[in-house]
């Protein structure tokens, strides 16, 4: 019996090593229109990942971040290659980010400014490499508008209700003032849950409108019982998903 157990353990160990080696063999860097991804077979890295001895951070879409990011109330600096520079880690808002806050607040008419790490303006195709994303939220946490600061040239962009404006010169760059459908909103929530490694309930449904957002309800049913998985806001114009709670 002991020999059988030992043999089984050896087989499992060998299989584990083979699977690991197979996964690493299929892992490689891939460049998309939004930046760099580190793919692993059919999946890609999200969040922190140690690659060839260096730590990298990938957003919810698997895009490698550079510059300053905020994770669990700590600030981390990622150099131009995406590698984390440990010596710069701090709990205090970095001077570079504080300057951006101050500039955004000059243009912001209402709401509280919140830092969102890096962002990508799909409407005008700007790379997210140098764009720092901020959002303006009302008193209950609803997203009013988005701001993007381009650290390479100091440009500040604002997106509100599908309209992208270059605030430095008050020029409208793009106007896509069209709403997404409730069906698209539901799909946005499903994609959001999958991208963040969260469980997707059996029911993901539109519930009602609230200001500039659709409210999407996620839940499971067991007989007469309903287990709520979450409530989400989906911006009607940008498609951005935020958790209600």
UniProtKB/TrEMBL annotation:
<dbReference type="InterPro" id="IPR018337">
    <property type="entry name" value="Cell_wall/Cho-bd_repeat"/>
</dbReference>
<feature type="signal peptide">
    <location>
        <begin position="1"/>
        <end position="27"/>
    </location>
</feature>
<feature type="repeat" description="Cell wall-binding">
    <location>
        <begin position="65"/>
        <end position="84"/>
    </location>
</feature>
<protein>
    <submittedName>
        <fullName>Cell wall-binding protein</fullName>
    </submittedName>
</protein>
<dbReference type="Pfam" id="PF19127">
    <property type="entry name" value="Choline_bind_3"/>
</dbReference>
<keyword id="KW-0732">Signal</keyword>
<keyword id="KW-0677">Repeat</keyword>
<feature type="repeat" description="Cell wall-binding">
    <location>
        <begin position="45"/>
        <end position="64"/>
    </location>
</feature>
